[in-house]
Amino acid sequence: GVRMRMEGRDEMQGAVGLRCTWDIPPPAGTQAKWVRLNVGGTVFLTTRQTLCREQKSFLCRLCQGEELQSDRDETGAYLIDRDPTYFGPILNFLRHGKLVLDKDMAEEGILEEAEFYNIGPLIRIIKDRMEEKDYTVAQVPPKHVYRVLQCQEEELTQMVSTMSDGWRFEQLVNIGSSYNYGNEDQTEFLCVVSKELYNSPNGLSSEPSHKAKVRSTLL
Predict the structure, then answer these.
(1) Which intervals hold domain BTB (predicted)?
(2) 164: closest CA among 197, 198, 194?
(3) What kind and span of H or E run contains 149?
(4) Are 190 and 172 in contact, with CB atoms under 8 Å apart?
């Protein structure tokens, strides 16, 4: 099948003339082999055979012309008031049985059109793909949030033993006694702990800024 986007009337007339040059006559009892569709202003050229791959589809019924009295434009193309962006992948699916999408094309958009045109196999494929994607998103590993706690030597054991649920000890950094405020000389430590976060992108927002600064230099 050939897909055509055409603007000018002259090209349209030319294309209509082109259809008459096919050597193979249509089989007895059927209409012409080639079908023109005007989907939301974009013209697609395809075959009756392609459109009828899915017998129950709107497109198959349309080109058989039994039930649907569809409007046609001045070139004789069937007028369909739908978004042409998503029609390309739908038509290609009918041509070769595969769903091929540009990476920025929304599967929801294709699903909407597949449901409108009633193409059962394509609806199932898209729904499966969307479910797989949801499952993959659910499997994304959790974020790790790190906290840096400053404490004196004698507080270390107590702090590690009373660490709240979900926090895990990561690293201990000896910073000597430079943070001493006039007390007896005690070794001070920075204790790095981490926690897995599943759905809180701003887990560090409650951290005092000096801890956040220390964190960035350590990790």
Answers:
(1) 33-134
(2) 194
(3) strand 143-152
(4) yes
Cβ(166)–Cβ(203) under 8 Å?
Answer: no
Q: Please tell me whether residue 2 adopts helix, strand or coil conformation.
A: coil
CB contact at 8 A, 123 and 115:
yes
Given strand 42-47, what is the order of strands in its sheet?
42-47, 34-39, 78-80
Whether the CA torsion 108, 109, 110, 116 is positive or negative: it is positive
For residue 7, the tally of other CB atoms under 10 A from its CB is 10
Residue 83 burial (CB count, 10 A): 14
What is the token pair recorded at 116? 């409108």
- Separation between Cα atoms, residue 158 and residue 117, nearest integer Å: 67
Q: Which residue reads 């990790």 in tokens?
A: 219
